[in-house]
Every structure is written in C-alpha cells, then in structure tokens.
Amino acid sequence: MPLPSISVGGGIKVPKVGKISASGGVDLSKGINLTGGIELSKDKGNVFTSGAAKQSHEDVSHQAISSYFIGPQAENLSYFKDNLDAILEEVRKARARYYPSDGQFVSSAIQSSAAFQESTKTVAEASRKLAELLGKHSVPFWSPRYQGHMAMDMSMPALLGYFATMLYNPNNVAFEASPISTILEMEVGEQLCELLGYNTVENEYDSQPTGWGHITCDGSIANLESIWAARNLKFYPLSLRQAIEKGGKLDFIADSFKVRNCEGDERLFINLSTWELLNLKMSTILDLADRLNHEYGISSGYMEKVIDQYSIQSRGKDAVEREYDINKPGQYMVATTRHYSWPKGAAIAGIGSENVVGIPINNAAQMDIGELEKRLEENFENQQAVYAVVAIIGSTEEGAVDQLGEIVKLRHRFESRGMTFLIHADAAWGGYFATMLERDFTPGRSSYGNLPVELGGPEGFVPDSSLKPQTKEDIWWLRWADSITIDPHKAGYIPYPSGSLCYRDGRLKNLLTWTSPYLSRGSKTGIGIYGAEGSKPGAAAAATFMANKCIGLNPEGYGALLGEVTFTCSRLSAQWAAMTDDTMPFVVTPFNMLPSELADGATPESIEKEKQWIRDHILTKSNHEIINDQSKAPGGQTALELLRLLGSDLNINAFAVNFRFSSGKLNDDTNEANYLMQRIVQRLSVDSPGDDPTKIPMWLTSTEFSPKTYGVCVQNFKKRMGLQDGSQDLFVLRNVVMSPFPTEKDFIAEIVGVFKKVALEEAELCRKRNDQTVADHEFIVQGTDLIYLVHKPSFHVGNYRHQTILEVEIVGGDSQKDFVNLKKQYPKEVFHFKTKDPIDLNEYLHAKENAVLEGYIKFGTHALSYLVFQFKINSVLKDRPLDGMYQASSYPATGMPFFLYGYEGEANLDHILVKYPSAQFLAEGVSLELENSIDPMEFDKGLVVYLKGAREEAMQPFPANKDIASNPSFFFQPGKTFDVSIYRDPWEENLKAGAQQVYVDLINAPSDKFLTNGKLMLKDRLIVDSESVNFDPYYREDDVATWQDEVKQIGKKS
Questions:
Q1: Measured between alpha carbons, how far is 891 from 955 in angstroms, rounded to an integer?
Q2: Which distant-in-sequence residues (6+ apart) come within 8 Å of 661 by Cβ?
Q3: Spatial separation of the C-alpha atoms in residues 459 and 1043, rounded to whole Å
Q4: How far is CA 971 from CA 205, 902, 951, 1018, in A?
Q5: Same domain (yes/no): 763, 779
Q6: Which of the residues bear the PTM N6-(pyridoxal phosphate)lysine (predicted)?
Q7: What angle in degrees, to the nearest 10, is found between the helix axes of 300-310 and 282-296?
Q8: Which of 210, 520, 585, 642 has its C-alpha lying 20 to 30 A from 172's C-alpha?
Q9: Are residues 929 and 845 in the same domain?
Q10: DSSP class of residue 300?
Q11: pLDDT > 60? residue 33
Q12: What's the confidence (pLDDT) of residue 462?
C-alpha cells in the first residue's frame, strides 16, 4: 500500500542531502595545499598526526552527515530541542482539537493543590536524578572515543520519529491500535526490500515475485521467524499430499494435479516421492494454493481449513515425519561462527540445535564454500533434507561477509540434481551497507570507482571509501536470497528495538499467520498477524521510517555516511597493521591478513616492507595526501587502494596483542597473550558497576576464538602472532567503527595513542609476571626416611609456574636429628620450608652438582626462624611446567590424578595440576593396599595414581578454602578411602602443546604404563589449598559502586 504524502516540515527541521558538488566549490585547477602548511609529526612509537586540525575548511558531504546527530559534544542539541518543542506543540494541538467541548479535566485548582504540587515535584526531582545518573554512568556511545560494540549516537531523525510516536503509544500488532504507525511499518518494509534488491511493484506480467518486509524487535527474532518459515515451507507439500490421498478432502484432484519437481520434470503430485516433496522449489510451493484456485476453483478459505488438519503447525514436526517415515531430520547450514540466535531459533522451532550444521570457515572467517559443498553433497547422497543455507553478511565478531553469490550458484547446481533449499542472508549488520553500492553496480566490476572528493582543506575533510570488490558483489547478490535479516538499530543508527525481516517472495509470510479476532480486523492493512511477536511498538517503525526518509537509503545518504565510517575503519586498520615493530615491547596483529601475507611466496621481509610502506604513506599522512598519493606500495597499490584492502569486509577490526619478554623474545603462550589482552580491555571498557565510564579514554570490546569454532582460522591467527598452536581459546580485541568523526581533527591519532599507552603499561606488567628472576620460594616438606620438598606453585607468576617435587636429604650438624624430633613432637602438623634468601630456582634445578637449599621450617603457628635447615637436592623427581600452552584441554572426568612417590610403607601424594584453575592437594604417609606389589625402583621414579570416583571435572572449580574447611563431606579428608589405579608416569620430555593431557587420558594409557589396582586411604597430614595456586597478585579489584544506592532513592518521597 503506498504511503500517503507526509510532510516532514510542520516545524520539524530535517537535514536534506541533495546533489553534492564533487569539488565543494573549490577551484581544483589551481591546486590544493594538502597539509595547509602544517608539518606532520610522529611520536616515539608509530602513532602519527598530521596537525591538520589547526585550520578550518569545508567538506560539503561531511557537513550534511554532521547534521544527522546531536554530536559528540552536544553541538546540535539546540536543533534537537527545537524539534522536540515542535513535536510537543503538535501533541498539545491534537489533544485540544479532539472534542474540545468536553472541557478541561485537570483544572487550575487541582494543579495548585498541595498534593498535586508535591507529586509533580517528586516526578521532577526523580527525572532530574535519573538523567543525572544516566549522564554519569552510561556508556558514551556518542563519542568518537567509543569503538566498542555496534552502537553509536542515534540519528536525530530516528530519535524524533521515536519520540513523536511514543507519545501516542501505538501497538503495531493490530491496525485498529496503530493506523499510522502500521502504514509506516509497511512503508519501511518496502524501503528495505527495495534497498536489498527485491522487486516491490506487483505486476501480473512480471514473473519476479514481490518482496515484503516488516519490523521485528531484533535480528534474533527475525532469524527465528525465517527458521519458522523455512520449516513450514519444507513440510507444506507433505501436508498437501495427505489432503490429496484417498479419503482426503482434496482426493478429487489426485488423478490430474501435476507439478514440476526440482529437476523440472512434470509429474502427478500424488506420485512424487517423499524426497521430491521435500525438495520442491519455493516458487512451486507458493504457487500451489493459487493454482488450485485457478484450476479447480478451490477457495483460499477452504484450502486453509483443509491444510490446517495436516499441517506441521497443527500436528507437530515429529508426527509428520513419522507419517512419511523420515528418519533423518532436516538441517540448517551456517558458518561455525554463526550468531547464537541460529541454534536457539532451531531449538524453539523444534528442529534442534544439533541440526544446525556448522560449516568450517576460511582464514578470513568466511564460510568455506568448498566445505559447504562437501556437506551438501553428503546430505544429497543420504537424502537428508536441507531447510536452508545461511550466508552471514557481516559477522558479529569479525565483520566477515560470506560469498553469497557462490552459495546461490551452488544451489542452482544441486537443484539440477534434485535437491533445493532456501537461502537466508543474515545481514543484521551488513544490510544497510547496500546503500554504498553505486546505482548501476553489477558483479564483475572490480574497479574501485572514483572517490567523491568534496575537497576543501585538511580539517573536516573526511573522505568516504568504497567496499572491497568481493564484498560489493556479495551484497549485490542479496537480491537472490529468499529472506534477509537486517537490523536498522545497528548500521541504521536507529533506537532499539528495530530489527527487520524481508522476504523475496512476500507470499512466504502467509505460512506464518496466526490470527485472533482482534488481529483479523483490518487484516488487509494489518501486519500483526505475521511473525513471532505479539505487541510491538509503533515508535520503532516511525523511527526507522524517519531515518530512511531523511537520510536516504542511497549512495548520497546512508551510503555517504557509511562510506565515511568505512574510511575511518580503514585508517584504524592501518594502525593495527603497522603501529608496532620489533623494537617495541608489544606486537599488534590484525585478524585480517595484509595483502603481502596473502601473496604467493610471502616472507617476513616482504611483510615488514609493506608495513613500513604503510607507516610512511598512510600512518604519517593526512586524508588529502592519501587520496592524492599515486606512488605504489610493494604490492602495486596506491595508498588509497591499499587502505581499502586492509581490515574486514564490514567495519569491524578484530586484532590481537602479544608481548616480548625483557630478553626481546616473543611470548609463545596463548594464555599469557590472553592475559595481556584481558587486562587491556578491562581498562578500555566497563565490566563492573564500579567502573566509571567517564574515566575511560577509549573503548574497545573483545571476543574469543575457540579452536572448535574457528578451526584452521584460529590456528593461522595464532601462528601469525607467534603463539604455539594448542587447545586454548584465543582472546581477541575488537573495535566496531560507526562514528564518522574520528578522522576529523587527527582524532585517530588521539585514540590510538591512548591504546598504545595502555598496551605499553600492560605489556610491562606481563613481562614482570613472566620473567624468571630471583624470588623467595616455599615448599611442603613430606616424609621422614625419604624426604621430599613439594614446591608451592602459582599459575600467575612466572617464578612459580611449575609443579616441582624434589627428593632431598638434610645436611649439616644435627639438623637431621632436629627434624626427626620435630616430626615426632608434632605428628599431625604439616611442615613448610621457606628459602632464607631470594633464589633463582631454575639454577638449583639444573645445577651440575647437587645444590643445597637453605632456609627455615615453619608449621602451624610456629616459624622456627632461629633454626636454619639445609636440604641437598638428590634428584628432581618431578618438574612439570604450568604454562598455559602445556595445560590440558579438559579436566579428568572419572577420577583425579596424583603423583605418588616414596615407598609402599611411606607414600606421599601431590595432585597433578593439569589445567587452570586448580587446587593443591597433598597427603603424607598414605596407606596403600595393592593387588600387586610395586618394585621400589618404580617408586624411585615417581608414579601416578588415579583416584577413581573423585571426579575432578564435576568438582572444578573447587570452592574457597574456608568453604572446603567447613564441609565435612569434601572428598579429601583424613580417613577417606579410594579405589585406585597406579601407572608409570606417561609424561614425555619433548614438550609439546597440551602436554598435561596425558594425565587426563590416563585410563587410555598404553598397557605398559599400568602397574596395579588397589585401595588408598588418606591420613592426617593433608594440605588443601584452592586459593594460593590460582591467586593473581596483579588482579584489578573492582571498586564498590556506591551510585547504585542512589538509584534506589529515585522517586522516594521525603
């Protein structure tokens, strides 16, 4: 339905973008002073500034874009206020002219009463206080310093549309509750369909289907609705077949009604196999009801009643599948990096999350088309139906765009063999970027096109940038997706909640209707009967309509805005790519590989050469200089061309940071790199109520790349960072660019400088926590005849990051006698030994001759500092690194491994720390009853005992020490008995990633490692400590958020 003409005047001031002059009124023939006479300068690192901010010049396109927002410093607030006043005046007029003869209901006498005045005062104070707290404690999305999530200042047209409509509170679930906002939503659906390339004009002579779209609360609900539609479409032919079978309501058409199967062969519908029914093309299925009406006169009302008896909506999926003996459930296929809404939606729709098949990704985080084809081929061979393949157009974490064009071509090939599926494009983030495509764009045009340069001078000049050639092509292919999710509240700069779903063939929505009497009234113009939602705010539709209309879904409107943002994103990408070199204590690695890395025969030297070129020709240059620099990079690109190749497909920069040790060696432990990045993002984001958003100088966010999800992609990323491959997830930093302002006033240099300062400080801390230096060391002393020192380890401090057991003897004077007497005098105490002076423990462990440790004994509340003991190291019984790269990928599921050492008559235990977090459990003098005796020489090497039934995986993470002490049922208590298996130590000295996994997999150890089974009983001398080993001395404590108490006071009457 066409929208009636709506004036956007009426006192509301809306910026209008018209045709923009390419030169902005500047005579280009006379040349341009590109730097305004200002020299470029470089700080001590590689963050550059042009100094261009000192002069004022014009950029026509950027001026228009600047009018869309209230502004980082509320520069346009006065215009916003004027518009709010105009809206409120219209509200007054609307109320005053509706039956004015009714007279006033709130008299001046009421308004002057004490109760009225008190109440209005309370509301005023509460409003002021709420606004104050919001201003102080909200995340400053509006600032160019914010580079976190998909959030920025909302556009003024959208805010005004939301505010104006909100005052009338329309509910778009029913036309009778929302006459104008329903019309606005229908118009928005048409706007978005047209943007995405769908046909929006019904024409009986045109075979193209007519698109249809509507607003949803978000992309997750849009994705859910698309799943619902795909499921219903796939089963519709099966329901119709039941109606046509003998005895069915439509059996009279069985002998004559024909359709074309997926391969194009015309056959009687009743004779189609289940596989053929499950693979009818969408157009064939959606034509069925119309054909039955035209060919047999069957009314749509009658068809609805008939199908309802057999439909999946009524009977449920399981019943229909049983009817047709379908044993292999239909599946969805989407990249492994998919949004969580896909398995969630499949679970809600009854498809099951396990039937959302994750397709591996390539090194750019795009779905691997070769892997998709393999999986589709497998489903084809097994005759397992596919509901849909999902192409992600702008992934949430990486900004990656799947190769939609290749997916469309792949479907065509499978259709020729008899299998089809829907294609859904999850363009929640990427949909609005379609405005950046030139109006005449067609695939195959790989040129960048001419950059519209609205030149003036250095300040305020923010060029817009085009998308990568392949990204353009895949966005163009959106027109062939059967359904598309697009979120105006992301790249449309519109308030929440405003997601949307568009169908290439609007008839698909008819499979989702669920009516009630009040919804049906006005159904010709209502949209509430379609989709998963009930009540929905008409204000969201109005906000989207206003923004789309006032800014424009075209290259001059949103295209120019997103083009400027894309240029800003590219300049940040250049910083992440080249800001660090091998002289700096930290290293930044962008997720998206540089052109030199992708080139055949890439070498460290060729990559560094390109990075240096970026430093010289991009980081050090003004926007004007980049545009006009025609010199060539090592790969043959100009500065602008190279800039456009950096970073992700759609304005999200994922990158990682590693550090160098003081020696200059690059860290190769993923856990330690993760630790650095976690500390950086903690300082550049809020993660607790006590954080003060106004004190954070730059905002980033983060994600994790797990090997299970990212596969070879994260392996490659770790390798580029200098990390060892392993099972650990990789913590990754992200910045989402939505603001067009950072490239003004050299602000990128400002925010990148902030990042550099924080990264330097945190890299120094990581050096400190990892460097091997002299330190005080503490041990647990076990045994009397044979004495062992068990080191007190720490996962977080390099000096203590190993699990060490030393076999020692006491030397010097009467020390042995003194020690034995102490043990007899305090039979239940656990003895600790602390070194007298700080030492480098590694030197002692690897000494050529037996080294001697000197220190003091302490136990309970006694610290015998007056009595010095010397322990000579006879052997290093165990020395297992606790570095993250060597940790296991999981905890033992059926038991718990311990080191077992001493001899059968006096055996000791030390819990093996396979993974962080963990706990230190030690036992001295345990009792053993073994099925077979163990050779003392085996004990001398140190064994491994597996406590069956002590299910470590189920107990991790262990409680705090005080909670363990107060729990008499805790598994590690004196007198506890366990069934055990004893093994030779399976440890391999040639260290490799995940080396500790051998202790998790003990039950699968080679037969030559197994020694015997038996029983083990704990005695008195036990150590239980779940805190020291996990304690992080560098952990940043959260501040207490006192402002939360202020929230509770809002609205309270004094």
A1: 10
A2: 667, 767, 770, 771
A3: 40
A4: 78, 23, 10, 10
A5: no
A6: 490
A7: 130
A8: 210
A9: no
A10: H
A11: no
A12: 57
**SS3 label, residue 385:** coil
Average pLDDT, rounded, for the chain:
88
**What pLDDT band is residue 37 in, cutting at 50, 70 and 90?**
very low
| pLDDT score of 532 | 86
pLDDT value of residue 524 = 53
Tally of CA atoms within 13 A in the half-sphere of 168 that contains its CB: 24
Q: Looking at the domain assignment, is residue 388 inside a domain?
A: no
* Model confidence at 460: pLDDT above 90: no
Does 829 lie in the same domain as 898?
no
The letter for the amino acid at 535 is S
Structural domain that includes position 644: 565-770
Distance CA(844)–CA(800), nearest Å, equals 14
The answer to whether residue 7 scores a pLDDT higher than 50 is no
Under 8 Å between Cβ of 943 and 926: no
Question: Is the pLDDT at 51 greater than 90, yes or no?
Answer: no
Q: What contacts 870, CB < 8 A, 6 or more positions away?
A: 810, 811, 812, 815, 852, 853, 854
Q: Does residue 449 carry a pLDDT above 90?
A: no
Domain total in the chain: 3
Run of H or E residues at 66: helix 60-66
Residues 688 and 614 in one domain: yes
Tell how far CA 402 is from the center of its chain: 17
Band (pLDDT 50/70/90 cuts) for residue 529 is confident
> Are residues 788 and 719 part of one domain?
no
**pLDDT per residue over 352-411, tens digit each?**
999 999 999 999 999 999 999 999 999 999 999 999 999 999 999 999 999 999 999 999
Residue 169 Ramachandran class (φ > 0 left, ψ -120 to 50 alpha, else beta): left
Neighbour count for residue 783 (Cβ, 10 Å): 19
> What is the C-alpha to C-alpha distance for residues 980 and 1013, in angstroms, rounded to an integer?
6
DSSP 898-918: EEEEEETTEEEEEE---SSS-
Residue with tokens 């503490």: 778
For residues 673 and 726, membership in a common domain is answered with yes
